[in-house]
Write a structure and sequence with these properties.
This protein folds into 2 domains: 14-43 and 287-390, Alpha-Beta Complex (Aspartate Aminotransferase, domain 1); 47-285, Aspartate Aminotransferase, domain 2, CATH 3.40.640.10. Helices cover 40% and strands 17% of the residues. The chain has 12 helices and 16 strands. The strands form 4 sheets. The chain has an 8-stranded mixed β-sheet with strand order 2-11-10-8-6-3-4-5, sandwiched between helices. Helix 1 (14-24) runs parallel beside helix 11, helix 3 (68-79) runs parallel beside helix 10 (273-308) and helix 4 crosses helix 9. The chain is globular.
Length: 391
């Protein structure tokens, strides 16, 4: 009697089972997968709470695109970064996950396809299936740095492709889209009459500089394009539930897309009034948190590179975001590496197959982890590697 969109009978994998045993035994786990900034020891200014002392939130005045003041605050966020975005090009959502759902509804019919990067965010398959859409993968390749395999992407295109999804910078590879890649992608999209969807939630967290990179698609003109972001990463406030879509491209096509997105949003009206009233202040206060995140991610990455230098592990090149990828010897599977690290050393990491890495053996660690936990976890990883070499 239930939908077959998802596999409802999924069972816990070996790593989840091991975590449960550790928790039941009261073992302290060094969690190097922390993705929630509110649990990572950052200081949040009281301005976050004060932002809700606003009498406007006592009045329900639903606007499908979002309140004008909140959309203006988002436009000012882009202006501070050199982007010119009219509030009329912005539509608010409760999250980027909801933004994906809206865009898949807008662009695709049941059975259509969207191209998504591999490796990348592990929820694409679920987000697509819930809209009866197929997530078809295109490859990212690594040759001292990550890049889009444009030939592989073109091979993945079919007559049912409706959009190409970019995660910029990618999660977990931390690679930004380069200008030459964007030029090729806009030509493909314009020629086929499909859209580009850019998830830009980590764009404010560069770990290296590169003048050839693209930080946002809000200025794309030659094809229909959508940029998504939100308070979750921009301000380190995932609990506030405010995201947005910025439409770009040829004006007539862009305006038509926004009108239809407004219809979709009007069906749900999911964005809360309080967070819209507080948006401007939350974006201002969030910069204090974002600055701390940038400092920590850079420090943790630098420390890990030094700690693992000369060991059997290496950290792949990373340009931005909150994660780093550690490459290990292929003497065992990454699941076995992760399990041994957890079971023998009480350190939790994510194996690369969580993100659909095509080869072995990779582990993914979060760079926003509290420094004392991160450093001890990396030391224990190095201990495991040294013991493994002595066998």
């Amino acid at each position: 009697m239930f939908s077959s969109r998802l596999d409802w009978d999924a069972h816990p994998n070996r790593l989840a089972q091991s975590i449960a045993r550790k928790h039941n035994a009261g073992t302290r786990i060094l969690d190097l997968t922390e993705s929630n900034p509110t649990r990572a020891g950052f200081h949040y200014p009281l301005d976050v709470a004060r932002a809700f002392a606003d009498s406007r939130m006592l009045v329900y005045d639903p606007r499908p695109r979002g309140a004008a003041a909140a959309r203006t605050a988002v436009a000012e966020y882009y202006a501070a970064r050199g982007g010119q975005v009219s509030p009329e090009r912005i539509l608010l959502t409760a999250s980027t996950s909801e933004a994906y759902a809206y865009l898949f509804k807008l662009l695709a019919n049941a059975g259509d396809q969207v191209l998504v990067p591999r490796p990348s965010y592990p929820l694409f398959e679920y987000l697509a299936k819930l809209e009866s859409v197929e997530a078809r993968q295109y490859p990212l390749v690594y040759h001292g740095g990550w890049s889009i395999d444009l030939e592989g992407l073109e091979r993945a295109l079919t007559g049912r492709t409706r959009a190409i999804v970019l995660v910029n910078p990618n999660n977990p590879t931390g690679s930004y889209v380069k200008r030459a890649e964007l030029d090729a992608l806009t030509q493909i999209a314009a020629g086929r009459g499909i859209a580009l969807i850019a998830d830009e939630v980590f764009a404010d967290y560069p770990l290296a500089q590169d003048p050839g990179r693209v930080s946002t698609l809000v200025s794309v003109e030659s094809c229909l394009a959508f940029s998504m972001s939100g308070l979750s990463k921009v301000a380190g406030l995932p609990q506030m539930k405010l995201g947005w879509i910025v439409a770009a491209g040829p004006q007539a096509l862009r305006d038509e897309a926004l009108r239809k997105l407004e219809w979709i949003a009007d069906t749900y009206l999911s964005v809360g009034t309080p967070v819209q009233c507080a948006a401007a202040e939350l974006l201002r206060a969030g910069e204090h948190v974002a600055r701390q995140i940038r400092e920590r991610t850079a420090a943790n990455l630098g420390w890990a590179r030094e700690a693992l230098a000369g060991s059997a592990a290496g950290i792949l090149a990373v340009e931005g975001g909150w994660y780093a990828t550690v490459q290990l010897p292929r003497v065992r599977s990454e699941e076995e590496w992760a399990l041994e690290l957890l079971e023998r050393h009480d350190v939790l990491v994510q194996p690369g197959f969580f993100y659909d890495f095509e080869t072995e053996a990779f582990l993914v660690v979060s760079l926003i982890t509290a420094p004392e936990i991160f450093r001890e976890g990396v030391v224990r990883l190095k201990t495991l590697l040294a013991a493994d070499q002595r066998r």
